[in-house]
Amino acid sequence: MDLLLNNIEQRVSLTTKDKKTISEKFRKKSFKRKEVIVEAGEISKHMYFVTKGCLRAFYTDKNGFEHVVNFAVEDWWIGDFGFHDQSAATLTIETLENSEVLYIDKNGMDSLYEEVSVLDRYFRIILQKALEAQFQRIMQINSFSAEERYVAFSKKYPQFDKRIPQKYLASYLGITPEFLSRLKKDLLKH
Amino acid sequence: MDLLLNNIEQRVSLTTKDKKTISEKFRKKSFKRKEVIVEAGEISKHMYFVTKGCLRAFYTDKNGFEHVVNFAVEDWWIGDFGFHDQSAATLTIETLENSEVLYIDKNGMDSLYEEVSVLDRYFRIILQKALEAQFQRIMQINSFSAEERYVAFSKKYPQFDKRIPQKYLASYLGITPEFLSRLKKDLLKH
Predict the structure, then answer these.
(1) Could you give the 3-state DSSP secondary structure of residue B44?
(2) DSSP H/E element including A51
(3) Among the residues of chain A, which ranges form H helices?
(4) Segment (H or E) for B68
(5) Mean predicted lDDT score pLDDT of chain B
(6) Are residues B132 and A61, on separate chains, in Cβ contact within 8 Å?
């Protein structure tokens, strides 16, 4: 829980009472590697804050190909947008390592926004960053070479590069795993 | 200004004092058709709320192709993400019709968040919707046929379909203008 409270306090100030309220609303859960915690098509019941491990969020296109849109490690949020109106998830979220999360349901989140109003600001800032990151990812796929994209990613998210299976990183970058592997070898030579 | 205040009041409650504060922070500006109001590479100084007209936001890829990522008409926000940390814009924003906007700079926005704290909630909700819309757009490009995408768009945004030049709508949908034109003719036959 300290990890979550620290994360929030990096953006907004919390009183002791706020911290207590937040701590009471979240539940803790552990997952083994390769467990699906949100399934596309099912109601998106929870938002997750990762305290240990690594997860990916992806969708499957009309040809059956998976497209990774997000990773999350410790100190990151992950969830599907259906959460906000309790509709069906469009993303599937799966653990890539044994993982631990704090999670909250929609009622919990709604009452949290009422009781700890600085959380509106906290999530406003988190969402600004998430939206910018998504824009950058999409623009880079069209504007940067695969090599430039990989270098930008490993610079921005050094914590991901070593942990994430290469096929998922390739999917996130919009390239084939073979191409990513060749690219990393070429970069090592320089 | 009423349009903006009404838009905000659809999501959060404002006091008379809040409304006065908000009204004082925004400036009004008119643009002719085809004016660039934010230029990629320049500091992204303002956020815009459209009160009249129609605009598009796009970026130019490494091959010189423009990709439209957003439209805005009356009652919509538009801006570049560089606004939040006053960095260079990645998007270019251009009017498609003679347009009127309310705009605010970073200092104005920061003081507005301090003085009218429900705006954190308001923008948190706006950002949730914007992030979801971007995800849906990207997923639809990979998962839906061009026809399905066009039908989904014209259903979701009936106010855009007639107003937006077809080449920009095609770019937003990720197809060629010729293909969009053929597709609309085919749909009319059914």
Answers:
(1) coil
(2) strand A46-52
(3) 2-9, 16-25, 106-115, 118-143, 146-156, 158-161, 166-173, 177-189
(4) strand B66-73
(5) 92
(6) no
pLDDT score for A148 = 87
Q: Would you tell me which residues 21-60 of chain A have a C-beta closer than 8 angstroms to some C-beta of chain B?
A: 59-60
Domains of chain A by range and CATH?
2-118 (2.60.120.10)
Has residue A156 got a pLDDT over 90?
no
- The ipTM (two decimal places) reads 0.89
* Bridge partners of residue B99, in order along the sequence: B31
A142 against A171, higher pLDDT: A171
> With pLDDT > 70 as the criterion, what percentage of chain A qualifies?
99
- B38 neighbors B81 (Cβ within 8 angstroms): no
Amino acid at B33: R
**Distance of alpha carbon A132 from alpha carbon A113, whole angstroms:** 23
A171 CB neighbours in chain B (<8 A) are none
Whether chain B has a CB inside 8 Å of the CB on A133: the answer is: no
Question: Which residue on chain A is closest to B110 by alpha carbon?
Answer: A121
Q: Which two tokens stand for residue B112?
A: 């507005």
pTM, rounded to two decimals: 0.90
Range list of H helices, B42-176? 82-85, 106-115, 118-143, 146-156, 158-161, 166-173
Taking only the tens place, the pLDDT of each residue in B152-168 is 888 888 878 888 999 99
Copy the structure tokens of residue B73: 């008409």
Chain B residues touching residue A90 (CB < 8 angstroms):
135-136, 139
Cα(A150)–Cα(B1) distance, integer angstroms: 45
Min Cα separation B121/chain A (Å): 5
Question: What is residue B21's DSSP assignment?
Answer: H
Band of the pLDDT at A134, cuts 50, 70, 90? confident
Q: Is the pLDDT of residue B20 over 90?
A: yes
Task: With a cut of 90, say whether residue A158 has pLDDT above it.
Answer: no
Q: Which helix (H) or strand (E) holds B77?
A: strand B77-78
Interchain proximity B144–A59, CB inside 8 Å: no
State the Cα–Cα distance between residues A87 and A73, nearest whole angstrom. Answer: 25
Chain A residues touching B81 at Cβ < 8 A: 128, 131-132, 135
